[in-house]
């Protein structure tokens, strides 16, 4: 099985397609090693045409580490669409009896990483229903973005601490919350530049676009510096966009990427199952 696996880079700043594998079946050690190596090298990988149940999705997810249970309260029928509520999440805009079966709905998700309470490592999505247009997932290679910085700017941000603002990470909202002092945010404190726990590479580590505070700076100076960083990392040359097809399995490394999502077109059904793999506390 290992010899049949083929890894095809997207040609963009990150991402690769993995071919020649059926992840509904138990992979041998060589196959698991090859898939994890592709994930670490390319920051995001996808496998087309996979037919998985929740148990098979969990078995595949374990290649990347310990799958987390999410015991946070939710306001949707998660138990209606997965055998493992709290372990396999539902990401969907589908409703039953007027109540969503999953999270995120149809709105656009802005640039962010998943960072609370401890940043995740791998996130895995399996596409069960995909709308004809819209809802593609976009990524930024934060390792490449850091490497491209001028040396003097690297020195300016290295060893800095950033507070990831504790606001709603999920959707762009029309009703903006009351403006607060970002330096007083209860969000977690992390290195602004972190070292990857597996590869040793450095990358910029941000939470949600528009949020955050760099500790020790006046708020205006922090805002200006964060805006400069966001403008740098979200340049097209650091991005890749995954065009979803039904049956896709998509895996990305949350430690060295940020991601966003386009809005679902009206009337389009979107339903994915998601697992999350435990990360580590970021280090310098």
Assess the beta-strand content as a share of residues.
25-35%
Q: Give the helix/strand class.
A: alpha+beta
What name does the CATH topology of the largest domain carry?
Double-stranded beta-helix
What portion of residues is helical?
10-25%
For the biggest sheet, the summary is:
8 strands, mixed
Total strand segments: 19
Spans of 5+ residues with little confidence (pLDDT < 50)?
Answer: 168-174
Q: What radius of gyration results from the CA coordinates?
A: 19 Å
Strand ordering within the main sheet = 1-2-3-17-9-19-4-7
The CATH C-level class name of the largest domain: Alpha Beta
* Tally of structural domains: 2
The number of helical runs is 5
Q: What's the shape?
A: globular
In CATH, the homologous superfamily of the largest domain goes by the name Clavaminate synthase-like
Q: How far is the first residue's CA from the last residue's CA?
A: 38 Å
């Amino acid at each position: 099985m290992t010899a049949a696996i083929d890894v095809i880079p997207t040609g963009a700043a990150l991402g690769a397609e993995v071919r020649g594998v059926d992840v509904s079946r138990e992979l041998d050690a060589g196959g698991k090693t090859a898939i994890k190596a592709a994930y670490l090298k390319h920051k995001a990988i996808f496998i087309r045409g996979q037919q998985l149940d929740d148990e098979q999705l969990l078995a595949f997810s374990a290649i990347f580490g310990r799958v987390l249970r999410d015991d946070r309260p939710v306001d949707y029928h998660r138990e209606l669409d997965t055998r493992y509520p709290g372990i396999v999440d539902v990401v969907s805009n589908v409703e039953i009896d007027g109540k969503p079966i999953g999270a995120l709905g149809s709105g656009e998700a802005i640039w962010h990483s998943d960072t609370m309470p401890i940043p995740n490592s791998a996130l895995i999505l399996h596409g069960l229903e995909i709308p004809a247009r819209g809802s593609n997932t976009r990524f930024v290679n934060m390792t490449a973005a850091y490497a491209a910085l001028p040396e003097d700017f690297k020195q300016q941000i290295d060893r800095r601490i950033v507070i990831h603002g504790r606001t709603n990470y999920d959707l762009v909202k029309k009703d903006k919350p009351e403006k607060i002092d970002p330096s007083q945010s209860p969000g977690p404190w992390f290195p602004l530049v972190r070292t990857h726990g597996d590869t040793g590479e450095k990358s910029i580590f941000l939470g949600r676009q528009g949020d955050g505070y760099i500790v020790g700076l006046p708020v205006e100076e922090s805002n200006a510096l964060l805006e400069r960083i966001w403008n740098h990392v979200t340049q097209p040359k650091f991005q890749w966009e995954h065009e979803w097809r039904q049956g896709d399995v998509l895996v990305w490394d949350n430690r060295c990427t940020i991601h966003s999502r386009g809005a679902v077109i009206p009337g389009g059904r979107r339903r994915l199952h998601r697992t999350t793999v435990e990360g580590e506390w970021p280090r310098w």
